[in-house]
């Protein structure tokens, strides 16, 4: 079994893939008037996928949740991403040795579990949504 080196990027992309697959997160894209979904950024791998139709409006969305697409989109070898996903899914977060690089807040990203990171992301998104909602309410009350 391959033993790849952990990086912040590999961990981030693996967590993204896990959340995309679990439908916690959604790939970036837009719907047309007929309800067909198209990705914001096409990769080379998207060319072989059928175009969305009224019968199959989510064909590209389904593809954009695959390991092969996410790996290509982020420039990571697919085998390496699959390894990272297996490591995160099957072991305790404390057992995964990442580069000890501090993030923007000065804390150590490597010591945070996926659950902690997910909680922080959700909290940030909720704070952002509250600010946007407040701005929209302010705009519409003028």
Question: What's the short version?
Answer:
It is built from five helices and two strands. The chain is mostly helical.
How does this model look, in words?
The protein has 142 residues and is mainly alpha-helical. The chain is 48% helix and 4% strand. It has helices spanning 8-21, 59-64, 67-74, 78-90, 114-140; strands spanning 29-31, 37-39. The protein is flat, with a radius of gyration of 18 Å. It starts with 7 loop residues before the first helix and ends with a helix.
Layout of secondary structure:
Elements (H helix, E strand, L loop, with lengths): L7 H14 L7 E3 L5 E3 L19 H6 L2 H8 L3 H13 L23 H27 L2
Antiparallel strand pairs: 1-2
Helix pairs in contact: 1-4
Beta content: under 5%
The overall pLDDT average reads 82
Kindly state the percentage of residues in helix.
40-55%
Q: Span from first to last CA?
A: 62 Å
Element-by-element helix/strand order = HEEHHHH
The largest pleated sheet is described as:
2 strands, antiparallel
Categorize the overall geometry: flat
**How many runs of DSSP E, i.e. beta strands?**
2
What value does the Rg take, in angstroms?
Answer: 18 Å
Low-confidence stretches: 94-109
Summing up helix and strand content along with how strands pair, one would put the structural category as mainly alpha
Biggest sheet strand order reads 1-2
Give me the number of helical elements.
5
